[in-house]
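Summarise this fold before class:
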Amino acid sequence: MPGQKVDYFECILCSKRTKPTDRRTVNKDIKKYLRRKFLIEAPENSVICNKCRHVYRNETGKTNVYAPVRCASTTTSDDSSSKKKTLSSPPSVSLALASTAKSHAYCCVCKKPGPKLVVVPTESRTNVFVDKNILIPPGNRCCPVHLDNDSGMFTSDAVQQLKTTENAFLNRTTISELLQQMRILCQRNEKTVFGL
C-alpha cells in the first residue's frame, strides 16, 4: 500500500539487505569484533547477515555465537580462543597411502552387500597395514568367510582381493588409533625378540 513504511534490515558490515532467515542481531562479542577490526560502531538493534557472521566465527574461533551470556570466568576470551586455535585440525588429512573404500553396507573385500557382514577387527586392520601398507578405515565390514576362524585375521586370499584407492583420508582419531596400534605391536615384538 502506498504511504506504508517498510523497514529494511541491512547488514552492519556489508550493507546487504537481509531476509528474515538470513539475519541475526549483533551481540556484545560481535560489537567488540566490529569495533576492533573494522572501526565500526554498531548501534542498538543492528543486524548481521549469515555470511558476515560466518567470517566472524571463522576468524575468532567462536562456535556458538548466540549462546546466552554467562558471567565472566577466570580466563579471558583471548586465552580461550587461542587455545581453540591450537587444538583445531582439519576434519581429514589426505595421505598418499593405499586404502580401501569406507563403507558399512558392503564388504571391503568382495563388495557384496550385507546383511551378514562383520566389522573388521582392529588387529586385522593393523596387520594388513603392516604387511601390505593398505589402510582399512575403522568400522569397515567384511564377509565372515574372509576372516580366519581361529585368529580373526584376513585370509591370504582376502588380502589379495582388497581393492584400494591411491589416497587415504584420515581424521585425528583414526591417526591416533593407528599410532596406538603400532605402539602395541612394537611392544609385543620387543617382548618376543628379547624374551621378556
